[in-house]
Design a protein that fits this description.
Number of domains: 2
Number of strands: 0
Low-confidence stretches: none
Number of helices: 6
Mean pLDDT: 92
Helix content: over 70%
Length: about 140
């Protein structure tokens, strides 16, 4: 399957899930919702790991890679998801989802400042469009 199809499927899944999450958050604390979400995701990932026959790959990972993936998990899957669910519980899906999707803006700045990536006109225009989009939604 072409990478663009995977990206479209990811966008589809990410676009549909807030509806279910908003409904579920009606009667559940955001922290408990994150716990449930991660337990279910972990069960699915472990099942897929077993079916795919790739479990042995876990034994040969280097410590540096594990550290950086773990930090990313804490930032995105725990802290990010917790504050996102809190926003989703009390706000409108049509506003919270687009505003929370400005993360590429932060990624561009981190890429430039920390990873020393190149800045070009396309990144500038994209950054400006993200800001305009958020202002229009608010």
């Amino acid at each position: 399957m072409k990478p663009i199809l995977f990206a479209i499927l990811a966008a589809l899944f990410w676009g549909i899930s807030p509806m279910f999450e908003k409904i579920g958050l009606k009667d559940i604390d955001p922290f408990i919702a994150v716990v449930i979400r991660n337990i279910v995701a972990t069960i699915c990932i472990i099942a897929l790991l077993g079916v795919s026959g790739r479990a042995q790959e876990l034994l040969v990972l280097n410590k540096k890679a594990i550290f950086f993936i773990a930090v990313g998990g804490i930032l995105a899957s725990f802290l990010g998801q917790l504050v996102y669910y809190t926003a989703l519980k009390y706000g409108d899906v049509s506003e919270i989802v687009p505003v929370s999707s400005i993360y590429p803006l932060f990624a561009v700045f981190i890429g430039l400042l920390i990873l020393k990536e190149d800045f070009n006109i396309e990144k500038l225009i994209g950054t400006i469009l993200i800001i305009i989009g958020v202002l229009l939604i608010r």
